[in-house]
Amino acid sequence: MSLPNLDANNFDAERQHWITVRVYYEDTDFTGMVYHANYLRFFERGRSDHLRDAGVSHQSLLERQDPAAFTLTRVEVDYRRAARVDDLLHIRTRYIGTDGPRILFSQTCFRGEEVIAEGEITAVMIHVDGRPRRPIRELVKQLEAYRWEGES
User: Fold this and answer.
1) How does residue 65 score in pLDDT terms, banded at 50, 70 and 90?
2) Which residue(s) pair with 76 in the sheet?
């Protein structure tokens, strides 16, 4: 699989964000397959880059007058295949939108055309002391331009 045509911020025409991840030895378990928890790290990179490329960096949230951050409240991952050392993986991130205080993402890890893992992630915005807060209005408005509107 080659990546679709991407704009300068790594989004395709359907508002899906893409990054590429190479599997290193450190990502694997004793069998040479990617350790299951490392897919969460790959997905984290995809979400962080999605937000940054959409103009919302974690650092900019911390530097606000009313600092904020994200935390995950739900992660559901389906593992379909095993990735191995030296594999080149593509992580697709779809920003689904908000549902009250929840910020929803759908992510898929590909090796070529093969789906390796799929995840549904729910994040919430928090104050830096860990207390929940409503998503920042201007952030939600900014992300709306990157909301994926396709079918799951």
Assistant:
1) very high
2) 120
Burial classification of residue 79, based on how many CB atoms lie within 10 Å of its CB (0-12 exposed, 13-18 middle, 19 or more buried): middle
Strand partners, 77: 119
Please list, in sequence order, all residues whose beta carbon lies within 8 angstroms of the beta carbon of residue 62, skipping any fewer than 6 positions away.
Answer: 68, 69, 128
The β-bridge partners of 106 are 94, 120
Residues with a catalytic annotation lie at 29
Q: What are the CB-based long-range contacts (under 8 Å, 24+) for 56-62?
A: 56/139, 56/142, 56/143, 61/136, 61/139, 62/128
Q: Is 26 left (phi over 0), alpha (psi -120 to 50) or beta?
A: alpha
| DSSP states of 40-55 | HHHHHHHHHHHHHHTT
pTM as predicted: 0.93
**Largest distance between two CA atoms of the chain:** 48
100 three-state secondary structure: coil
